[in-house]
Write a structure and sequence with these properties.
about 40% helix, Rossmann fold, 6 strands, six-stranded parallel beta sheet
């Protein structure tokens, strides 16, 4: 399957098509500003929980609100292209809100994945996903790997 950038207006229809084919949908999200080993390992692990991995990508405006005026380092289009080059990633959907709640509501993933640095109560959409029988998985992060640490080292 070729990785694809999909618009938020088409993501619900995509999820329905995938389900009709019997595919298990995994969703995760983030800014993914400067892709590093930790991201690769995280996304590769996320993909193991199902058949199709959809990554929700914070838009530039959303990333700025969450990370500060100096972020993102790379624009949303570049970040999407880089994510789509990864074997583990099947689809990327951009969202402009501060949380992926709307995207999660449209996709209704079978599995929602976040890093183990999040408490279950902090994971956007976790309650919703659990409400219809979906699973929420927390993935252990690669120690010492983070975009913020990389930026500090470069600065």
């Amino acid at each position: 399957m070729k990785s694809t950038l999909i618009g938020i207006t088409k993501v619900a229809a995509l999820a329905k098509r995938l389900r009709r084919r019997g595919q298990k949908i995994v969703f995760t999200n983030g800014v993914f500003d400067i892709l590093h080993r930790g991201h690769i390992e995280y996304l590769t692990r996320a993909k193991t929980f199902g058949d199709v991995l959809i990554v929700g990508l914070n838009s530039d405006a959303s990333a700025r609100r969450l990370k500060g005026k100096s972020r993102p380092i790379q624009g949303q289009h570049d970040r999407a292209i880089i994510l789509l080059a990864l074997k583990a990633v099947d689809y990327v959907v951009l969202f402009s809100e501060d949380t992926p709640d709307r995207v999660i509501g449209l996709i209704k993933p079978d599995v929602l994945v976040k890093g183990a640095d999040y408490r279950m109560s902090e994971i956007a959409g976790a309650g919703f996903v659990k409400s219809y029988g979906g699973a929420v998985r927390r993935v252990r992060l690669t120690p010492g790997r983070s975009t913020s640490k990389l930026i500090r080292r470069l600065g």
